[in-house]
């Protein structure tokens, strides 16, 4: 379904690729492909481009005549300058630290939900995800060996084209604070920046030279609460996490993240850098539950990827025998 | 008086007889008739159960699939039942629910979802009927199908190979009488039971949605396994209904300790908004939806303004 808008024409001041062929085109930041825009809904004009990456590029509630291709901002038509926002979105990599003991569908959902949210703000494009299982020396109860947890995460991510597992943290000689893991991955990220963009439809699509990728800590909103636990986190580290990196916190039942933020001066100061995401599908699934179910011989199918379940059975993990 | 040494057996016994007497040594002892009852239970086949789930499955989600797993663990765990099969029966298009897409797609998605399951399968009978079929009739159809196939000595119903006490007993029985195993006629036919969530149980209260006699027959003749988070509400609902209360022994409430709120409605909403449904539905289902562009604001408008088939039918019959 395409719209031939008389308002959107050559003289409208919009980039050439917007009105090409009389229909709306847009650029998917992930695939770097120019796609035609589909308009869905009667009241809301949501343009969904590039089904593969499910990028929502503009979300506007306006009568059709006033439609303007500008991400997530309501604007009237003619006369308003449309900045080339698509290309100046900040690239983001999401880093999730945790035990992943074992990894579950809930962990994987965190990434999907966080990515959708960041894209819909119009300010970011998520270019990758990293799962970093914690070091064995964390000494959490029932923690199985790191190489198993890494292997399970790898199996779980076999079918994902943007999330990967990184064993660096688990391979260090000792446990390390989250902020150090962030620092490591951030420097790795900067080091691996692509120099040029691939062949595209014109220079309009090249990455703006100032768009440095950001690494954000992805976690459940309950982590915000743990900031209050005395001696669990260093104050300086909390500040560095929210100031230099940023957080994406996915809400879980029973937690009110806004409360945690307002209860802390540091978090309040950098709350613009703490993205609170509401997961519409309430899911109390946790690794603890999985471990208990497994030790009682109950089925965990459809709670974690089949490949992970097979691995657990083959290696006799979580059978309930004390380790 | 027989002393039972195996702790597990003792549990089963107390389930079966419900009456416990102790001698001076504190050992549980039983009267003769109770012993016979217990021995019969131990030696006979546990009641084989087929779980039947009816619904729109529009689309099927991981939550639907979890219902089966939870129900099987529960029923097998009682020691009285053995779940041998799970059946997903998507409703026909004639149900006329809002947003219901073609049965053809829903059936394929359910089949993709159960591709990797050893015991859950999809049945298309209901979806192929021209008119909407009451749930009771679907239950009856499947029970009759089981009865028909159990007369055939060559049973091909899938059995779960589960090691444990049952197999030991089976092996011991072989010493006593090979004949028993060769005479399937003496074996009970598996029983079909309706598997559902609490929403279906509570929909019994919606006027004209269900026929009262149907509800009675479903819980009386077949049985209900209801997976619920809010066990108290479901119990209260049963308590407040004479028909359900009468057959409460045939209604099994299974507690879902973790909230797993993956409803098809939310999936469709997420799809309309371009949000990811990964890890909420099986990957094959997600790919199928994407490939065929199944859910959109247009598809959600289907059957708007049309009266739901059961409401139409029951109201018409009430007025006739």
UniProtKB/TrEMBL annotation, chain A:
InterPro entries with a match to the protein in the record: Cyt_trans-like, Euk_NMN_adenylyltrnsfrase, NadD/NMNAT, NMNAT_euk, Rossmann-like_a/b/a_fold
Reactions it catalyzes: beta-nicotinamide D-ribonucleotide + ATP + H(+) = diphosphate + NAD(+); nicotinate beta-D-ribonucleotide + ATP + H(+) = deamido-NAD(+) + diphosphate
Start and end residues of each Cytidyltransferase-like domain: 95-292
Family: Belongs to the eukaryotic NMN adenylyltransferase family.
Descriptive protein name: Nicotinamide-nucleotide adenylyltransferase
UniProt gene name: NMNAT3
Pfam families linked to this entry: CTP_transf_like (PF01467)
Enzyme class: transferase
Keywords assigned: ATP-binding, NAD, Nucleotide-binding, Nucleotidyltransferase, Pyridine nucleotide biosynthesis, Transferase
EC number of this enzyme: 2.7.7.1, 2.7.7.18
Lineage of producing organism: Eukaryota, Metazoa, Chordata, Craniata, Vertebrata
Originating organism: Felis catus
TrEMBL record, chain B:
Extent of the signal sequence: none
Catalytic reaction list: nicotinate beta-D-ribonucleotide + ATP + H(+) = deamido-NAD(+) + diphosphate; beta-nicotinamide D-ribonucleotide + ATP + H(+) = diphosphate + NAD(+)
Residue ranges constituting the Cytidyltransferase-like domain according to the UniProt record: 52-269
SUPFAM superfamilies the UniProt entry points to: Nucleotidylyl transferase (SSF52374)
Biased composition (Basic and acidic residues): 158-169
Biological pathway: Cofactor biosynthesis; NAD(+) biosynthesis; deamido-NAD(+) from nicotinate D-ribonucleotide: step 1/1; Cofactor biosynthesis; NAD(+) biosynthesis; NAD(+) from nicotinamide D-ribonucleotide: step 1/1
Class of this enzyme: transferase
Domain of life the protein comes from: Eukaryota
Span list, region Disordered: 147-169
Keywords: ATP-binding, NAD, Nucleotide-binding, Nucleotidyltransferase, Pyridine nucleotide biosynthesis, Transferase
EC number of the protein: 2.7.7.1, 2.7.7.18
NCBIfam families linked to this entry: nicotinate (nicotinamide) nucleotide adenylyltransferase
Protein family according to the UniProt entry: Belongs to the eukaryotic NMN adenylyltransferase family.
Name of the protein in its database record: Nicotinamide-nucleotide adenylyltransferase
Source species: Felis catus (Cat)
Classification lineage: Eukaryota, Metazoa, Chordata, Craniata, Vertebrata
Gene: NMNAT1
